[in-house]
Amino acid sequence: MFSWLEKNPFFFAVAVFVVIAYAGIVEVLPNFTENARPIEGKKPYTVLQLAGRHIYIKESCNACHSQLIRPFKSETDRYGMYSLSGEFAYDRPFLWGSKRTGPDLMRVGGYRTTDWHENHMWEPTSVVPNSIMPAYKHMFKDNADIETAYAEALTVKKVFNVPYDVENGTKLGSWEDAQAEVKAEAQAIVDQMKNEEVKKAFARGEIKEIVALIAYLNSLK
């Protein structure tokens, strides 16, 4: 049989493809599936964090900042532990990026504070003198879209079985429950901010985009 295959290149190529494909299914696919599972302790985004993620995408932050630390010493020395597949289990879409006009933000929540983000978004050069990033002062005036964020969380819970409202997981609940959770999370952020207009708006029941964005950035660890 093998001598016959050696004399027929086409069928030999087909046989090699079948063997490699089978090996891939048996060896690679199960390992890939296992690695794609959420890492221990990974929780879905809160509604406020999802609202901030929507702003991050809307403002095309991912065009200049990646969220993927590769397993090279030069990257881990600068950005921290390399990224694992399971860390992106609840990301839809992924924001890995392929360009770094600015630094990678995969672990930014572990070394930047709310105060730093507030100053950076208001006037980037105030904290990074040579920054070419534009200021995002409109985020201090525009309200975050909390309803859309709640709708997404509810959708992925029902369609993709994302573990909201489970033991030791992220609380979602009803719209009224979510509003209360958002308010409490936003309160902790607003208390650390200096911008008086944002504070006054929050007192009126408004949550500005900057608050939601900071909530999202603080979750990246």
UniProtKB/TrEMBL annotation:
Pfam families: FixO. One of its GO terms (molecular function) is heme binding. Keywords: Heme, Iron, Metal-binding. SUPFAM superfamilies: Cytochrome c. Residues 47-221 form the Cytochrome c domain. Transmembrane segments: none annotated. PROSITE patterns: CYTC. This is Cytochrome-c oxidase, cbb3-type subunit II. It comes from Campylobacter aviculae.
